[in-house]
Amino acid sequence: MASPPPPGLRPYRPKVLRDPVYGNITIPSRVLLELVDSPEFQRLRRIRQLGMCFAVFHGAEHSRFQHALGVMWLMARILEHWHQRRLVDLSEEERQTACAAALLHDVGHGPFSHALERVFSGVDHESLGLQVVRRRLAPILERNGLDPARVEGILAGTDPNPVFHELLSSQLDVDRMDYLQRDSLYTGVKYGLFDIDRIVDTVLPMREGPEEPLLAAVDPKGTEAVEEYLFSRYFMHWQVYLHRTVRAAEVLLRVVLQRARAVHAETPGAVHLPPNLRFLFEPLPHEEDRFLDSFLNLDDFDFFHAIKLWRQSPDPVLADLASRFVGRRPFKALEHPGEGEVLDRIRESVQECHGADWEWYLHEDTPSDRGYGVYEPGSARIPIRVLIDPPFRWQEISQVTRTEAVLALARQVRRPLLLMTGESRKRVRSWMKTRSSQESTGS
Fold this sequence. Notes:
three-stranded antiparallel sheet; 51% helix; Hypothetical protein af1432; mainly alpha; single chain; 2 domains
C-alpha cells in the first residue's frame, strides 16, 4: 500500500509493531505513521479502552491507542486481501483513506467518554472526532495526497462508496472484531475469542447491480465464523461491558461528576477545579477551536487527579462520593423490584443511611443489549449479508444459518437494577430476610 514518496523524501519503509493480539502488525504507509505520531492520536495512549472495567477486571488497563491500531490493521488486511485477489478495483488512495478512517475512528473519545457525555454538553465523541480530522489532522492527510473530506465521509457514513463505512461501523465490522478480541485478552475472559482469520478471508465486496455501489458481504463458507463472532459479542456484553459491578462503578463516576457540577453551579469556587477541567464546568463562548483545544488536553489522569482532590471538598456529599470512587467502594446492585413495598423500603433504608441527600445514593440502571439486529427492508440497519449467487444476490444471515440461534440473539435483553451504597443494601437485605422468614412461618 506504500505510495511514491513526496519529492525529497526517502521511500517509505513500513513500520512493524508488536501487538499482543495479532503478533507483528504493520503501519503500511507514511500518512498512517504521521497520523499515529500526531499529538491528537498519541493522546489515546492516556485513555483506557474500557472505562471503569478495570474496577472489576484488573487487567483491563489497555488504551484506545492500542485498539485504534488494531482496527487499522484489520481494515488494511481486508483491503489488501481484496486487492491481491483482484476482487475489486480500489485505488491505493482509496485504500489509504479507508485505513486512515479506521485509525482515527476513536480520535474524538475523551476520558471515560460515555460518563462524560451524560454529564457535560458538547462532549459527543463522534462529532468531536470529525472536528479533529477537519481542524487538526487535515494537513497531514492533504500533504500525503488524501482528501480529509473523504475520511470524514467514511466516519460519518456519507461517503459515496458505502463499503468502507460498513467495514468500519456495522454489525460485522473491524471495530467490533478488534475490541472483542482485545478486551477478551486483557480482561482475562475467553468469551470474545472467535476465528477472526476466517472472517477476514471471507468478507467480500459485492454489488446489488452492475452500477450499484460497493457493499460488504460474507462468503457462505464464513457463516459459522460470523455466528461465533455474534455470540462472542453477546457474551462479552453481559459478562464484561454490562457486568453489574462495572455498571455500578460507572454510575458512581457519573454521580461524582454530577455532584461536582451541581456544587460548583450553586457556589462557584466551592469545588477545586484544575485549570484544564474548568471549561467543562464554566462553558466557554461558542468557539469550536477553543473547546476542541481544551478537550484535546484531557485524559483519564486529569479526572483521577480532580476526584482525589474532591475527597477534601467542604461539601460532605461530594467528599464522600469521591472517597468511595477513589477507594473502590462502588454502589451495590440489586435486581429492581418494581413499584411496591420493597421499593418503598429500599428508599427508606437509603434515607436512614444518608439523610436529606439520600437521592444521590440511590440510582436506577437498566443495562440492555441486542446481540444482533435482524434486517428489515427499508430500515437504516446494515444487515450481515451472505452471498448466495455472486456477485449480486444475498440473504441476511439469520435466513441462511443452519440453526435459529442468530434469531434468538435478536431479542432485546434488559436487566433493571437498583444501585445503592453497601450500607443501604445491607439494611435492605436484612429487612428482606426478616420479611421472608415471617412469611414462611405465617406470622
